[in-house]
Every structure is written in C-alpha cells, then in structure tokens.
Write a structure and sequence with these properties.
The protein is mainly α and 150 residues long. The chain contains 6 helices and 2 strands. The protein has a domain at 48-124. Helices cover 53% and strands 4% of the residues. A hairpin with a 5-residue loop joins strand 1 and strand 2 (81-83). It starts with a helix and ends in an 8-residue tail after the last helix.
C-alpha cells in the first residue's frame, strides 16, 4: 500500500502506451481500394454486384467444374456462355493483378492462392517473346553438355 502512487502512475502510463495507436488514428478514414477497371470491356461474366461479393465462389466453382467434371464452358445468369479460364478469360480484361486484384485483396487482408499456380498478367508479359526465345536458344547452344547428352 505504500507504493500506490507508483502503481497508479505505471497503470496510467501503460494504458496511454497501449491505446496510443487507437487514439492516433481516431477519426481518420481507412484507405479505400480503387481497382483499375478495364476500359475496352463494360461487362463481366456476371453483374458487378455479384462479382464483388461472390467472385471467389465463382472461381472455386469453375475450378471444380474443370478439374472434376471436365466442363470448360460457363453459362451465366443471362444465358451467355464464356470459357472457364482465369488466365484467358478474366485476365483478358483485368490485365494487371497489382492494379486490379491486389487493390481489394490487400484492403481486406485476403491472400488467395490463385497465383500459386496461375501466372499474373505482369509476369506473363515477355514470356515466349522472340527476344526471350533467342536468349534461351543462345544459352542452350553455348552450354557444355557431357557427351552422353548429345
């Protein structure tokens, strides 16, 4: 009981220290994502509202349909057909993972594993171009392989 003043001062300092991040951000608006929308296409495979809320469910359904059922055509709610392909259908319009996908995924701290297998459009650029093929063929020609591999 003799150190009541010290204990109360310590508790007060602790409360101030722990709550500082809360008070320093009080009243500030959170970052709002602004995904870069495609300019040449106006409609997606489904409505904007559906895609905002349920695009991951759709992509999971597509994966299941392709892998388990060998179904490669998607019929949307309007009866229109689209090929089931993340890279060749979705990324045809949404040409930048960084400027489209990552905007919202970072905002909600989502870490989808699509890119463990699929190649983002940024990485895809330059692949199998004439310059990259020349570089590969030049490197292969100059490499010294053992006689058993010739």
């Amino acid at each position: 009981m003799y150190d009541t003043g010290k204990i109360l001062a310590f508790i007060g300092a602790f409360v101030v220290f722990v709550s500082t991040p809360f008070w320093s951000n009080f009243g500030k608006a959170a970052f709002e994502p602004h995904p870069k929308l495609p300019t040449q296409y106006k409609e997606c495979v489904e409505s904007k509202e559906f895609m905002r809320a349920d695009h991951m469910k759709l992509l999971r359904l597509w994966r299941y349909d392709v892998v388990r059922k060998e179904q490669r055509i998607y019929v949307n709610s309007k009866g229109e057909t689209y090929p089931i392909s993340l890279q060749n259908e979705c990324m045809r319009c949404h040409t930048s993972k960084k400027e489209f996908c990552d905007q919202c995924h970072n905002y909600v701290a989502a870490h989808p594993y699509c890119w463990n297998c699929h190649i983002s459009p940024e990485e895809r650029k330059g692949w199998a171009s004439k310059e990259s093929l020349k570089k590969v063929s030049t490197e292969e020609a100059s490499s010294e392989l053992p006689a058993s591999h010739h």
